[in-house]
Specification:
This protein is of the alpha/beta class. 49% of the residues lie in helices and 13% in strands. Strands 10-9-8-11-12-13-18-22-21 form a 9-stranded mixed beta sheet, sandwiched between helices. Strands 2-1-5-6-7 form a 5-stranded mixed beta sheet, sandwiched between helices. It is elongated. The protein starts with a helix and ends in a 12-residue tail after the last helix.
């Protein structure tokens, strides 16, 4: 008994099925050729000629054994019945044809002629009976699934896109036993397809017919299956779908469609960024790779939303070394673990420190000599900075100056500042501090190109880090070669402090969703887009530029909130209330990408432009920074007035206006 139990454990389930199938095929072969003789004799066994029956009995068992061996060669006993496909049908027919030809040749040579109907009829019956058991299991599953889908509380799916991707989704809905949904109609903008069917499911019209057919077919789910749709079309279709009460999902990446890997399980929820109505920024990864590969790269603020994504993409481009510099250890430790796990060969240095600390900065720059610096460290929260304006200047403006100064002193090749559209005609201290950052890097770049880098003050609270080292410092300034550029973009979806995570949490709590003003608008982009732009800026830069992304049309925050509520399956103002809380300190209704005085010129990427620098008196500006630093570190109550004197486009009194 124990021996039998042990043997049973060693034999796998598929092997048991294969043995049963071999026995079935053995019987099938015997039956196929006998039944042909029987049919030929008018279904009377007594009428079968004795010499035909003798030839049959002498040869059929040998033929059956040989056939089984050949079927093994054709892998007819290793296929998964649940996934029996057209390929298995072809293999079965080819295998049956092969053995039947051998049957005809060997039997004719060894035993003499047999009726042609015996060979042909036997081949037909044999082939059919070989195919039936291999597909019966899948057919039973199909019938079971159909009965379940038509008989219970199933999801009724509208598939938008009657192309190959839509057909794949339909096939998966029909065959996947675990899915409790069924397709009830297709939508496609091609009128030639209207009124036709795909596997029994009607194509009922175009996008303008979505509302009508959602009601007509009691649709509960909508699957968007157009992987090649342009962003504008996708936005319009999703906008229509969002007005229904249906759950909405869309296809994954296009490459999965190309590989034929699309299933319903791989479909993802529609994200709010899908409604922005523009294509993702496409970067030339080869340019970025050539620029970063083999270089020592440093990211300040590397634990933040933008900084951590910068670190991910830089790590993927094989730098010689990646240095992460941040004051906040928790998020920094998180990105450190992530990169060490994904890129074990990466030379990763993680440094905790502040961009306000000149000694710490010079220590890190001296030890590792970064060739490229992406400066993402900054306070970015507008209302908070309005209550702590001196901190915005200390961290953003003076911190940028100190980091840029350390980069210049230690031979950095490229310094890329992460800026914001809030630096354009700022009405808040955060935006003004970032405009100061832009002016700082433009001043550094101008002085280096003039050969007057020594005229840049150190702004250091530590005298030993200033211009006191005479000859050595002169050589350092004379050899300064750092190119300074800025990258300016709008609000980043999904970043720490962005509206989307806040809205999602409010929706999860059942509302209300708070919007500051019904008319407030913002430009949006994804974190991946922002980082792509930053990396491209490093490859395009020649020094002094402010790179600006064409982010398309601005989006109303109210519309964004309402769309997010709809995509979550609720009705705005009914299921989830929207409350207007009023503009926050320093906030304005409209953001601008570029100052009116700044012209634009194109780059190799049509969605990335360069703003012409606004002229200002560099020498006067650099002298003003010393007073600004003293005021900020003295926590001056007049800091806004001092900033306004330095940044003529700063108008704090215009907060809340267009």
């Amino acid at each position: 008994m124990a021996v039998f139990s042990s043997l049973k454990k060693k034999i796998k389930h598929w092997q048991i099925i294969a043995i049963c199938l071999i026995i079935c095929d053995f019987v099938t072969i015997h039956f196929s050729y006998f039944v042909t003789l029987w049919i030929r004799s008018d279904f009377l066994f007594s009428q079968i000629p004795r010499f035909y029956l003798d030839k049959y009995t002498k040869f059929i068992t040998l033929y059956a054994v040989a056939s089984i061996v050949i079927f093994v060669f054709f892998r007819l006993y290793r296929s998964m019945w649940r996934f029996a496909s057209f390929g298995l049908i072809v293999r079965t027919i080819v295998a049956s044809t092969t053995v039947s030809l051998l049957h005809f040749i060997i039997m004719t040579v060894l035993l003499g002629d047999m009726p042609y109907l015996y060979f042909f009829g036997g081949f037909i019956v044999q082939t059919v009976l070989l195919i039936v058991p291999r597909f019966s299991f899948r057919f039973l599953l199909f019938l079971k699934g159909r009965a379940k889908k038509f008989g219970g509380n199933t999801g009724r799916v509208m598939i938008i896109g009657a192309g190959e991707a839509g057909r794949m989704i339909l096939r998966d809905l029909n065959t996947a036993e675990q899915l409790n949904d069924r397709a009830v109609c297709f939508i496609d903008d091609n009128p030639n397809k209207w009124g036709r069917f795909i596997e029994g499911v009607p194509i009922v019209g175009g996008r303008d017919d979505i509302f009508l057919n959602v009601k007509k077919y009691n649709v509960t789910k909508i699957f968007l299956a157009i992987p090649t749709a342009k962003a504008k079309d996708r936005k319009e279709i999703l906008g229509i779908c969002a007005e229904t009460d249906c759950e909405i999902k869309q296809l994954p990446a296009l490459y999965q469609f190309a590989l034929g890997q699309i299933t319903v399980k791989q479909m993802k929820d529609v994200a709010i960024e899908d409604l922005l109505g523009r294509d993702q920024i496409k970067t030339d990864l080869k340019e970025v790779f050539d620029f970063i590969n083999g270089k020592v790269v440093m990211v300040t603020g590397g634990g933040g939303s933008i900084g951590s994504e910068l670190c991910r993409q830089i790590a993927a481009h094989e730098p010689k070394m990646l240095i992460i510099f941040d004051i906040y250890e928790n998020s920094t430790y998180s990105i450190q673990l992530e990169l060490q796990n994904k890129y074990p060969a990466l030379d990763l240095k993680v440094m905790i420190g502040s961009v306000r600390d000149s000694r710490r900065l010079n220590e890190v720059f001296s030890a590792y000599r970064p060739q490229i610096v992406y400066h993402a460290a900054a306070h970015k929260h507008v209302p908070l900075m309005e209550y702590s304006p001196n901190e915005a200047i200390k961290n953003n403006s003076i911190g940028t100056f100190k980091t840029a100064y350390a980069a210049m002193l230690h031979g950095c090749e490229r310094f890329v500042l992460i800026s914001t559209d809030k630096a354009v005609n700022p009405t808040n201290i955060m935006g003004a501090s970032k405009r100061l950052c832009e002016m700082i890097i433009q001043s550094f770049d101008a002085k280096i190109k003039e050969g007057n880098a020594s005229q840049i003050p150190s702004l250091s609270l530590h005298p030993e880090l200033g211009n006191s080292d005479g000859e050595a410092m002169d050589r350092t300034f004379k050899n300064a070669k750092t190119q300074f550029v800025a990258v300016r973009f709008g609000n980043v979806l999904g970043s720490n402090g962005s509206v989307i995570p806040i809205f999602k949490k409010q929706i999860e709590r059942g509302g209300p969703v708070t919007v500051t003003h019904p008319d407030i608008v913002r430009y949006f982009m994804t974190i991946e887009e922002a980082v792509s732009l930053v990396l491209l800026a490093g490859t395009y830069a020649s020094g002094g530029e402010i790179f600006v992304l064409d982010m398309g049309s601005p989006v109303k925050i109210d519309t964004l909130a309402r769309n997010l509520i709809k995509l979550s399956g609720y009705k705005p103002d009914e299921d989830i209330k929207i409350v207007y809380s009023g503009l926050r300190p320093g906030e304005k209704l409209y953001e601008e990408k570029l100052m009116a005085e700044e012209g634009l010129k194109k780059t190799a990427n049509d969605l990335i432009h360069i703003g012409q620098p606004i002229p200002f008196e560099t020498d006067r500006f650099l002298k003003q920074l010393t007073g600004l630093m003293k005021a900020a570190y003295g926590n001056s109550e007049e800091i806004r007035k001092i900033v306004k004197d330095i940044v003529p486009t700063y108008h704090p009194e215009n907060a809340g206006r267009s």
